[in-house]
Each structure stands twice: as C-alpha cells, then as structure tokens.
Design goal:
Blueprint lengths: L1 E3 L2 H9 L4 H6 L2 E5 H7 L7 H8 L3 E2 L15 H13 L6
Parallel strand pairs: 1-2, 2-3
Helix pairs in contact: 3-5
C-alpha cells in the first residue's frame, strides 16, 4: 500500500526518530511538493532530517483533478488528498 503523508505526522515521527518505521509498514511513502516545502523550511524543527528522508519521495500533483474541500485545508493537505487519488494509494497489489 502507498502512504501519502502530510506534514504533522512526518514531523511527529521525525521528532521520535521513527521515520524509517514508515518504510517498514508501507510499500511506498510519498509526499506532494507542498508538504515537502512546508517541512523543509529552514526555520522548522526537524527540517534537515525530513529533507534527507523525503528527498526521493516527492511527487508532482495533477492540480486539475477535482476534490471537495471544506475551505480549511492548506496547500499541503490539498495536495496530499489529490496525490492520494492520483496514486490510487489505497489499492493493494
């Protein structure tokens, strides 16, 4: 199964030193560009660890897909939901 991660969970796992747990639990870990840019800002805690971990896991999102939002989602959350649909993340092989 593919995991499409958002920033909060990634930061929490990084603080605990448990990012590699994701690789053990999921076939593939991906993040949209907006999430990557959000967590690697130089003023953010864990930015360097997350940049190293996520470098090869960033995916472009097709922003033309349609998704209903409640108006409270930020760019990272929006792209994560679109990437989830784009990658068919809940399908298993």
């Amino acid at each position: 199964m593919i995991l499409v991660a958002d920033s909060s969970a990634l930061v929490a796992l990084s603080v605990c030193g448990s990012l590699t747990l994701l690789d053990q639990l999921f076939k593939e870990v991906t993040v949209p560009e907006a999430v990557f840019l959000e967590v690697v800002k130089s003023d953010k805690p864990e930015a360097k660890k997350l940049e190293n971990y996520l470098r090869e896991k960033v995916r472009k999102v097709n922003m033309h897909d349609f998704i209903y939002l409640d108006g409270n989602a930020d760019a990272g959350e929006t792209e994560a939901m679109l990437l989830y649909k784009q990658e068919l993340a809940d399908e298993t092989e």
